[in-house]
Each structure stands twice: as structure tokens, then as C-alpha cells.
Amino acid sequence: MSKQTDDFFKNIISHAKEYGFVFPSSEIYDGLSAVYDYGQLGSELKNNLKTYWWKSMVQLNENIVGIDAAIFMHPTTWKASGHVDGFNDPMIDNKDSKKRYRADQLIEDKIDRYAKDGKTDKAEQLQKELDDALNADDLARLKAIIEEHNIVCPISGTKNWTEVRQFNLMFATQMGAMADGAEQVYLRPETAQGIFVNFLNVQKTGRMKIPFGIAQIGKAFRNEVIARQFIMRMREFEQMEMQFFVRPGSELEWYTRWKETRLKWHLALGADPAKYRYHDHAKLAHYANAAVDIEYEFPFGFKEVEGIHSRTDFDLKQHQEYSKKKMQYFDPEINQNYIPYVIETSIGLDRLFLTVLANSLVQEDLSTPEKQDSRVVLKFHPAIAPVKAAVLPLTKKDGLPDKAREIMAKLKLDFNLQYDEKDAIGKRYRRQDAIGTPFCITVDYQTLDDDTVTIRHRDSMEQERVPAAELGRIIADLVSWNNLLEKLI
User: Fold this and answer.
1) Residues 257, 260, 261, 262, Cα dihedral to 10°
2) Which residues form the Aminoacyl-transfer RNA synthetases class-II family profile domain (predicted)?
């Protein structure tokens, strides 16, 4: 990471805390590693991102419905899914710093450094070595690669490494009042299994016909050993997943379709298309016959924000075997019973949140020959902005606050607003720019005469005079979900 990109990433983190988007969890107790809290603006932005996903996935698709499955599930669920035996990461410890790292991520960081230093051949060769070792599950080879490329511990700076070994990422706990009779259960490491075990419930009660999908937004938990890159990798995180059930043999066609649909969804938010790319998996999970990541170019490099996977019939077949309940679908079009194949779209909400912050945070130089000036602005799409508009009386006297409050009382029934009467109007504009408020409504002395107000547009900083009575309609049009969703149809 160059100093410029490193500084930008630090600016994102500090801005997120300063303006109430993201706080370190339990900060008064020095925090908890890889755990974060969303503040007053962060929770609003997060909810808006969930709404955008839910509307685009469930509301726009007649054959996709949503559920909300419990976090706790019968422990056999995780045996059937393979998580008990196979949900592991290759870990390596540095004996001097006593820190534990994912071996593959240490190597990926080295690949990024080679690429940034212009050593493309070395980066490509190291990527091939890593892919070969991962495909072969060769832990000894992973350690050898770390040694051959002189990869050091980021803390101690030494190469005093242990052997690479597997580490299970699931959190286990006890369910039951009595210690002797307690049953070991797990905090779910993914939300997908809650969909699979409810496949028949949804299909039968909803009279769903193949192809159809089940969507879900929910918390998942993984004992990520490495806390790094802010909210990119956390122990408690939120997923937005949709499992799309299809007829066997049609899965790759649907896989391609969903791959294109999901990238289009990201780009609709207004990001630079050059910052996104597809990354096909070099090593497929044993249950998959195709897998791709949608990656975004963060300040620290391209990283996954969403995965699209063709999971075949593995999940339903496994649950049929372990539960002894038939997970088949009768297809009247071909007069045949079969276990459906599944296309999965899975997006990390926290990573999407970071993507939106990184894509929106801009520092603009507004200097003129007469005056030095600048502003920091979050250029959120208006539909997802935490605060839709700010109501600002020009001064704190002469009845302007009363008129502003009157306008606010009408608009807050439909929109999340802020009221601010402290400091000069220019400072108040800057505060709203910094939290991404797309529109500011200024109430001035002319308002008292003709009941018009000024709307100031965040991105252009242009101002227009409009009747106060028209504000509800004007703001509704500017922040409407339709402005996003129409791009997806």
C-alpha cells in the first residue's frame, strides 16, 4: 500500500468514527479485536443498504421470497454442511510476536507488494505457487513459500515461524440450563444453511415453482484470528444471501445471469466501473462447479465484496442424508422428482458498507484566487444517504427557527432529517457535506414573505428557490428508491 492510499484508508476510518458511522466496540474498555459498532449515521446507512438489496432482490423478482432464520440451529446442520469437519483456515504463528496469521493471506500480501513494485512476473509466479498449494491442501508447501519469499511477521519483523496447521473458525457454546445435560451448539458461520433447511417449508407454503429463490439478511460469526483492514474482516458480521433453486443442467446458465445481474446492482450505486472486476476462483469448493467473486479496489487492493457460486445439489442432498427427510421437488413440466441445484449470491454487508464509504469520500479543493477553501464530502447516492435533507434557518432570530421547525414537522413524516441552527450557514453546509446529506433547505427572510426556501444540492453546491409547499414532492423525487431500482430493470 502506497503512502497516499494508506493515508486515504486512515482518513476513511477516522471520518467514520468522527461523524458517527463506525466505532470500535467496547471502546471504553480498549475495544474488542475485530468487533465494531455502527453509530447513529452508520446504522442508518446500513439499513438503507439492506433496504436497497431487499427491494432489488425480493420486491423486483416475483419468484424470490425472503425469510429470517434463527442464528442457533440444530448442531447436526453443521455436520451435514461440512463446517464441523472442514471449516478451517491454514494458520501460522510467529514465535517472536506470538501473533497468528492466515498463511494464504501473508502470501497474498506479498503478491500485492510484488505487483505494486512492478514485479508482475514474480507476482504471477507466486500466485500460481499459492493456488497449487491450496488446491493440494499442502500445508508444508505453504510454509515453504513463506520462507522462500522471505515473508516476515508484520509485528516482529522476523521469520521465526511455526508449522502451518488448520484452525476451525466456528464459535461453539452450550445450550441448556444444566451443565451435564447441555448440548454443544454453534453460532452460525453463514446464513445459507437457514435457507436450505427451510427449502421445503417455503416451497410448499409459498407454492413456489422452480426456478425460485429464497433471500435472507442476517448475522453470522467466524472466529477470524486476524483483525485487519477495519470492517473488512470481523468476527461478527452481516450477510445478504440469496439461494436460487434451479433444474439440474440449467445451473451454469443461471450462474452467468446472476453474475451479470449482481455486478449491475453494485454499479447502480454510482461507483467507477474500473474499480470493480470479476475474479474466478482458482480453487473450487468441493461442492461447486463454478464460482466467482465480485471484487472492489479498496485502498489496500482488490478484495471480494460478493460471491456468486454454483453449489450444485450438495447442500440439499447433504441435509436429506443427515435428516432422513426427502428434499426433493416434483417438477410438473417434466413429470420428474429431483433435488434442485443452487446458485448462491452472497454479499458481506459490512464490506459493502466500506465499499460505499471508500467510493463516496472525496476531498475537494474549492480555492479561488482570493481565498483558500476546501471541503470533505460523502457523495452517497441520495436513496441510501443516512440523512435525506437538513433544515437550516439562516439565523436564530426573527421567527426563522419557528418557520424552519414548521417545515421540518411536515417533512419528517416521510424523511430522515436534521435540524441545525448553530454557526454560520457555510459551516453548517460543510457539516452536512461531511455526513453525505444530499440536500440542505435554508429558511431565510424571503421565506417569511413568499413562503419559498432555498434548496442547496450537495454535489454541485448549486442552489434553487422553490415553494415550501412543494418540498415534500421535490425531496421525494430526488431521494426515491425508483432512481436506483429503475437501473436494474
Assistant:
1) 120
2) 124-393
311 appears as a binding residue in the annotation: no
- Asked whether residue 430 is marked as a ligand-binding residue, the answer is no
359 annotated as ligand-binding: no
Q: Is 366 annotated as a binding residue?
A: no
Q: How far apart are the C-alpha atoms of 435 and 439, rounded to whole Å?
A: 11
pLDDT, position 227: 60
Residues 213 and 347 in one domain: yes
Tens of pLDDT, residues 422-438: 999 999 999 999 999 99
Q: Are residues 351 and 327 in the same domain?
A: yes
The domain in which residue 95 lies consists of 88-168
Co-location of 161 and 197 in the same domain: no
Task: Work out how many domains the chain is built from and give that number.
Answer: 3
Q: What is the pLDDT of residue 368?
A: 85
* 71 is annotated as contributing to ligand binding: no
Average pLDDT (225-254) is 90
Q: Any known ligand binding at 304?
A: yes
State the DSSP code for 413. T
The annotation status of 333 as a binding-site residue, yes or no, is no
Q: Is 239 annotated as a binding residue?
A: yes
415 belongs to an annotated ligand binding site: no
Residue 224 marked as a ligand binder: yes
In this structure, are 343 and 232 located in the same domain?
yes
Establish whether 392 is an annotated binding residue.
no
- Mean of pLDDT over the chain: 92
- The CATH number of residue 441's host domain is 3.40.50.800
Contacts of 421 (CB under 8 A, 6+ apart): 392, 393, 395, 396, 401, 404
Residue identified by cell 437457514 is 194
pLDDT computed for residue 181 by the predictor: 54
